[in-house]
Amino acid sequence: MSDSLRELWLRGLAFNSAAPSDLLIRLMDPAAGGVGPMMCEGRDLPDAVIDAALRHPAEVVRRALARNRYVDPARLAPLATDPSGIVRARLAGGPRSWPRWVRPLPDDILVTLLTAQDGGEDGRLTADEIIGELESSRQIPLAFRHSLAAREQPGLRIRATWSWGSLTPAQRARLLDDPDPAVREAARDRSWVLDPERVEARLPSYGPRDKVFVFGTCALSPALVEQCFADGMVDPLARNRHAPAHAVARLARHPEPGIRALVATRPDLGPDLVAELTKDPDDDVRMCARLHPFSRTWAEYDMLHRIIGHDPDCTCPITEPDPQPSPAWFAACAASGEPVLRRVAASWSGLPAELVGTLARDEDEEVRTRLACHHPLAPPRLLLEVFVTRPAHRPHLLTLPAFPRTGTIHLINHPDPQVRALAASDPALPDPPVEDPDESVCRAAAANPGLAPQVLEVLLADPRTAEGAAANPSLPVPRMHALIDRCLNDVPTLSTAAQR
Description:
Layout: H1 3-14, H2 21-26, H3 35-42, H4 47-54, H5 59-66, H6 85-93, H7 107-114, H8 127-135, H9 142-147, H10 154-160, H11 169-176, H12 181-190, H13 196-202, H14 208-217, H15 222-231, H16 234-239, H17 245-252, H18 257-264, H19 271-277, H20 283-290, H21 298-307, H22 327-334, H23 339-346, H24 353-359, H25 365-374, H26 380-389, H27 394-397, H28 417-424, H29 439-446, H30 453-460, H31 466-470, H32 477-489, H33 492-499
Helix pairs in contact: 1-3, 1-32, 3-5, 5-6, 6-8, 10-12, 18-20, 21-23, 22-23, 23-25, 28-29
């Protein structure tokens, strides 16, 4: 048996949905090389396998499990206190592939990571370095962030002050009067973002990137407003909800159409300027001015500008709007004659089922595409349509529970091999194309559960189909064990590699 076949069999068995727990646990053996960690990171796992991985002596196994995007994150709680700081950091950092939508971590894991006094027994990372991974991971849900100001732990209330501009006046007042002196000090220090004079005093100490944050979010003095215009920092100023009325009026007449478009939907824009911008020579500016009635709040403004300027192949991260416009506003967007507003509605995962049905038939392709990618009730036929027509969205669509795994036979002769591979795995396909010119199609065809065990024996011997055949759920369990016995008992190459 060649090393290449051994590796293909092991990989296939590791991702065989019918493989029993005891077999999957055997794949964590160092003799299996990198297959065990690959499995622990890349698929859903039975409880017994999760338990074995959580207490596995090899850090590489626990590290891989920490990045698993398929296992219920509540099951990963022990990894938040793992002796290895690297394991903790992998859990905090989330899935390796940076999927568009990231499942949030439970509150207890977040609290453990955010209040840790050290970075693990191995001393390779600090607690702050691990928290840095968490902050950029998109695994902290908005509900948890909004709860920080009222949390029992003073360290979490201090963390709440870091988003001072997003707090309510009542939350700010409570933090400024907090019983813990460290929290009060942090609140006084962070409150500078809404004090124009303190903002002006601090600005010289910031670099260019931080200045973009200041000009885009902080309350600005008249001198800083003028500096924005002088330095060409008008884009962040056009988005700044604290920009004074005279600055907004200047921005509405800025020579760059993109700046005028940003201003045209500001909720604080006066009716005279709105009327002026509806006659702007630029199409996009006029369109934004038409949308102004749908931008009465800053939450609505922010939601609009998540969509404006993006095309159907946009693969930006899917995150919760903060704050979120009302359900009634999204419903009004769904019924609008403006395609941009219907795209906004299609991007909200809370849209009612009846509106989902309407938008799934929308004449605008981007509306349908956004609905497919964002809404859990998007019909399977739409998910398949977008998969075929928009390759950029395929990795995301394949992760969705509603994505169809059957009813794809009509695509078996499609020119795109990714589409043919999907069709090749359809269990209803009478003759899976195991000899397709493309190897990915052959592999998918070999994994088709409609194949008989005797056919799989032939496919296991062919490098083009061996991995798919080993992953085939129709492979008898005794045969799975026989394959792994052969792989693990005859592994001089893998054993040496695993020890390294």
